[in-house]
Amino acid sequence: VKENVPAYLDPNLGIEELMSGVSFASAGSGFDPLTPTIGNVIDIPTQLEYFREYKRKLEGKMGKEQMEKHIEDAVFCVSAGTNDFIINYFTIPIRRKTFTIEAYQQFVIYQLRQFIQGLWQEGAKKITVAGLPPIGCLPIAITLFSDDALTNRRCIDRFSTVAINYNFYLQKELGLMQMSLAHLGSKIFYLDVYNPVYEIIHGHLKFGFEEVSSGCCGSGYLEASILCNPESYVCPNTSAYVFFDSVHPSEKTYFLLFKSLRPTIDSILGSF
């Protein structure tokens, strides 16, 4: 496993880099087709099409049989959903006019299921799917939806409850998908990110964190994605912050999350 997974769309990547793993993700995207249009980013179907293109490149290098074996041995990491709720459902009124929150959770999971099925059809055998974090504790959620976002920044429990319920439905759906495709040799793994991140936030002092409700980049309240760039202000000690920007954890938080998920990761890697 290499230290960094480069973007597939990096024009400077050679075939050896492609063979050892790439990322098809697009920051700001989501399972709901509406979500990527908000930030004008790459939607999930297009990411899947890029994967098909990637397979053709590998086939040109190693032949069809070796390419298919390469894909079967690979681990696919799927992580999305936060933007669907925070950037889309709770911020833009379009989906709220059509869906209750319960119906929207099912709608997002349906879109996820379609994507996972697409990966299976393209030969993926080992797929990890991350659940939602406690989205009510994200700095951007506190800023946008708190009654007093400046002087009393704390987690919004009703949003985090949405994440808990979504994760419950997601695990149930993944279990059904696993049963229906086990005979094909496919394995799907749920990654619980909610509980480790919740523990870090609410027990931050024992992990050495000082700031939990704002990010290290910019004001820490709203900046994310392109608003956090080489020209942005960055706090002098990133390891004191649970979040790097208003949405994403800091490197230290990601490392703690990795340690929590290590048994699952070892199980996945041991299934080769």
TrEMBL record:
Classification via Pfam families: Lipase_GDSL
Organism superkingdom: Eukaryota
Gene Ontology terms, MF aspect: hydrolase activity, acting on ester bonds
InterPro entries found in the cross-reference section: GDSL, GDSL_lipolytic_enzyme, SGNH_hydro_sf, SGNH_plant_lipase-like
UniProt family annotation: Belongs to the 'GDSL' lipolytic enzyme family.
Protein name listed in UniProt: GDSL esterase/lipase
Species of origin: Noccaea caerulescens
Organism lineage string: Eukaryota, Viridiplantae, Streptophyta, Embryophyta, Tracheophyta
